[in-house]
Amino acid sequence: MRMPLWYGGDYNPEQWPEEVWAEDVALMRRAGVTLVTVGVFSWSRLEPAEGRYTFGWLDRVLDLLAGGGIGVDLAVPTASPPPWFSLEHPDALTVTRDGVRLTHGSRDTYCVSAPAYREASLRITRALAERYRDHRAPVMWHVHNEYGTPCHCDHAAAAFRAWLRRRYGGLDALNDAWTTAFWGQRYSDWAQITPPRATQYLPNPAQALDFRRFVSDEMLAHFAEQRDLLRELTPGVPVTTNYVLAGWACVDHWKWSREVDLVSVDDYPSGRGMAAAEQTAFAADLARSWAGGRPWLLMEQATGYVLGPRASPKEPGEIARHSLQHVARGSQGAMFFQWRASRGGAEQWHPGMVPHAGPDSRVFREVCALGEALGRIPAPVDGPLIGPPVVEAEVAILWDEEAWWAVQGPGLPSAEIDYLAAAQQAHRVLWRQGVAVCFAHPSHDLPPYRAVLVPSLYLISDEAARNLAAYVEGGGTLVVSFFSGIADEHTRIRPGGYPGALREVLGIRVEEFRPLAEPVELPELGPSTVWSEVVHLDGAEAVARYPGGGPAVTRHRVGAGTAWYVSTRLDDSGYARVLAQAGPAGSGTPGVEVVRQRDRVFAINHTEDEQPVPVDGTDLITGRPVDGSLGPGGYVVVPVQTRPAVDPRRFRDLPNHR
């Protein structure tokens, strides 16, 4: 049975007088809201002193929502410990790498390794689960909020050492992995090891990378403790936590996505206009790939404004278009932060579904229109938490958080190397051409996609390198960008020339790097920036050359496939020309998005002109026929005849495994 889409947002009734609550529910019904997240930051209201609970207000809120037919994503509020906890347990407050212990006054004021914090987290989790295990409102549990905050205190240090013992077994293995012979850092006792705190000069990059891995695993353990308790007390109710895509967030999303019942993400594009649409598609494809063919949910986005140093109003229709980009890629719905814009507090200027102007506003009218539209689109799966992949991907882009973390490490030859920007460019160029894309970890099994793109994958294991070579030998097309394959999983440089583990499959040897201070014009491909290399051919052929004659882009035939190497940063048009030669280019209309699910097609026009679309049928949203074109900013969802199941080795989302 097809389920309705979830639609709504974070609801914080504790910020408002109780007489507003009934109005909220009435407005939610008017807007078509089906789900709200309640209690994310309400720990201090729920437990004003240790072991003393005040659930009466939440009882009334949940009763009101249930009476209005609105489901609840009930939060465990461990992202924001109450002031009394911080005063009683100052050792559980966050310590920065500089050794500064932060004070209460914001959210995320905790150390995830502090025993008192872990105990308090389980206590509030148990109290909520026992209180509401039989209430009809909760349909899902929401643990914490945007995990990612590291701590460098003594609790974290002890937990880090325990994690390292499990990872390496003994100090000899750790010293080898961390290359501690450099600068005389060899450890002779586990007690000598700390988190990578502030030091005189550059920290050890292997230590810094392992600490990020540890933080991800330690936070995952915190989540799993609460999840397991919730599963015990409320069996059958799914448990999730909302991901945030940010360089500061120490979260390995491939690993985490195996542990949640439902992948959920927050998406706040920073661009405007077409750039925002490109960033939204990138985030949605990442979430879909992390979910690995299972359902997922857009948990947070903004309504009226693009957030940033200068708030920019979203253009009319963008709220719906961005939401539908996620739904098209399999999201179980579209959620926002937050329902009603706050009057005070640190995020009082964060937009809401009900803005400061109230319901008589453009934003709320668009919110209502989107709710009506989503109400006419069934969810993309056959049940609340089951279902097959819904988008047939043609090209895979490799995504590895550990490689991203390593590129953020100390002492690299250029501060302008940007893993995220490289991945976004690869996705953006294909999105403009209408090519369906998924993301994969380098160690995933790779079916015969049209191509696999490798954006500046500095860190790579021997296993992953063999995996990519096998993909090419089997007939695949591999497109590798500069600064890839250079270091192993411990950030140790692979000797013999770059790009290290990928030299053989690429048929080249890079002798040295030459970062660029000024752009260089490549005759065949236009401007190149940031980076260049001295490339020697070792079986490959040059497809494009630097002005001095050295190879800039190469092609190597291996077995039944081909491996390409791009040794510099090209602009989007230059990179698109490389992909056109390599094979994965498409023929879509820039700014017109067409996403095909198994039994329907989403078409979204992000441009200001009428555009042709390869879609005919009846729009589910309006009930009107679609004649192969879309007006400016328009969107349609058209049912199509279900096609036979595709060969599982082709054009599918990758399974979520390592």
From TrEMBL:
The keyword Hydrolase applies. Residues 393-582 form the Beta-galactosidase trimerisation domain. Its EC number is 3.2.1.23. It comes from Microbispora bryophytorum subsp. camponoti. It catalyses: Hydrolysis of terminal non-reducing beta-D-galactose residues in beta-D-galactosides. This is Beta-galactosidase. SUPFAM superfamilies: (Trans)glycosidases (SSF51445), Class I glutamine amidotransferase-like (SSF52317). Residues 10-375 form the Glycoside hydrolase family 42 N-terminal domain. It comes from the Bacteria. InterPro entries: Beta_galactosidase_C (IPR013739), Beta_galactosidase_Trimer (IPR013738), Class_I_gatase-like (IPR029062), GH (IPR017853), Glyco_hydro_42 (IPR003476), Glyco_hydro_42_N (IPR013529), Glyco_hydro_b (IPR013780). Belongs to the glycosyl hydrolase 42 family. Keywords: Glycosidase, Hydrolase. The keyword tRNA-binding does not apply. Residues 591-638 form the Beta-galactosidase C-terminal domain. Pfam families: Glyco_hydro_42, Glyco_hydro_42C, Glyco_hydro_42M.
